[in-house]
Design a protein that fits this description.
The protein has 253 residues and is mainly alpha-helical. It has one domain. It contains eight helices and no strands. It is globular, with a radius of gyration of 23 Å. About 3% of the residues have low confidence.
């Protein structure tokens, strides 16, 4: 009798643990799908906004204030949302990674955390502090914070933040191996990390001077940023498909 009771108790515990794992897998699949989709939408929103309303060339704070339009900061809204959605996506990848590749995903989460912190802080300063100051006519002393200032704080923080994001993408790319979908995810992450800058360099060298003049002084940076947005959107879509397939497979078992 005692042996039967112990066996039943173990079965109940096993069933409970199995149910908990199933619930966790379902939650991971849902969060992974939606965060991947949101990452893609935000990356495309960033690309659309930055192309439609480009940042004017820096000619001093007075000229920047005179030509300022709030639409120039519209791209920051999807970029602001992109940071936490990308971080959640990396956490979901880490939660579903195999044991031998979990460390790579964990490193990616660390880099994504630093990126999300820097990016959200940077954009929040622009939207909540700099923009109202410009509109109220009290921004003369904020040249160092202006997003158009190539030697200002905004560019420095943005460059550092996205450097951390791209390093994280490079690490997490090695988590995916096996199916065609996983290899596609890996290569899209390679493209979004440092591949976009290699491609941008090649394109800039190959493009005629007439087209390069339209890029202004940014050149490789402008092309690389656009390619980063495209590859990030592609990676987000592919990861959303990946998590959706995982969720459907769990429901079928």
């Amino acid at each position: 009798m005692m042996a039967q009771a112990a066996a039943k108790s173990q079965q109940v515990i096993a069933a409970s643990e199995g149910g908990a794992r199933t619930t966790a897998s379902r939650l991971r699949g849902q969060l992974g799908f939606w965060s991947g989709l949101l990452t893609a939408v935000c990356a495309l929103g960033f690309l659309t906004g930055s192309l439609a309303y480009p940042t004017p060339a820096w000619r001093g704070m007075g000229a920047y204030i005179a030509s300022f339009d709030s639409s120039q900061m519209l791209w920051m809204i999807p970029a602001l949302v992109l940071a936490p959605s990308f971080l959640v996506l990396m956490v979901c990848v880490h939660a579903g990674a195999t044991d031998e590749r979990k460390l790579l995903a964990e490193i990616a989460v660390v880099f994504a955390t630093v990126y999300a912190t820097l990016a959200t802080t940077n954009y929040f300063i622009q939207l909540i502090a700099v923009r109202p100051s410009i509109l109220s006519g009290s921004a003369q002393g904020l040249a160092f914070l202006s997003m158009a200032n190539p030697n200002g704080l905004f560019i420095a923080l943005e460059g550092l933040g996205y450097l951390f994001q791209e390093i994280g993408m490079l690490f997490v790319a090695f988590v995916f191996v096996g199916s065609r979908l996983k290899w596609s995810i890996r290569w899209s992450l390679f493209g979004a990390s440092f591949g976009c800058w290699l491609i941008a360099g090649i394109l800039v060298l190959a493009l005629p001077r007439s087209l390069l003049s339209g890029l202004g002084s940014l050149g490789v940076v402008s092309v690389g940023t656009d390619l980063w947005a495209i590859f990030t959107a592609l990676a987000g879509i592919l990861l959303a498909v990946h998590f959706r397939k995982q969720g459907m497979a769990r429901q079928g078992t």
